[in-house]
Amino acid sequence: EGHVEGEKVENPDTGLYYDEYLRQVIDVLETDKHFREKLQTADIEEIKSGKLSRELDLVSHHVRTRLDELKRQEVARLRMLIKAKMDSVQDTGIDHQALLKQFEHLNHQNPDTFEPKDLDMLIKAVSAGYK
Question: Locate the NUCB1-like N-terminal domain: which residues (predicted)?
């Protein structure tokens, strides 16, 4: 109630290992007026079911470009984590795809563009993280 329009509200850390990525995606999506309105009027079931994810096709090109960039940065971060884990283990029999599958908050098979499936996976991962 006491917030000024445009004032940034600090959200507590979710504790998720992809918390920063989640926050950045939300911040970018909220810059799109249409998506922000849909987000504000959606109930939790619409969000969890993936219905809101389909609205991603309607956001501006600038927003999609920024989301693509965020996803590429997150994929690069995850690859660094995997490399660090591999370096610490020094085992040549590591299955890279199995390691990537541990990261269920994005579609690792498409590392370059942020699609509705990515938003859906991010929402489902967050929902699962709070159970």
Answer: 5-126
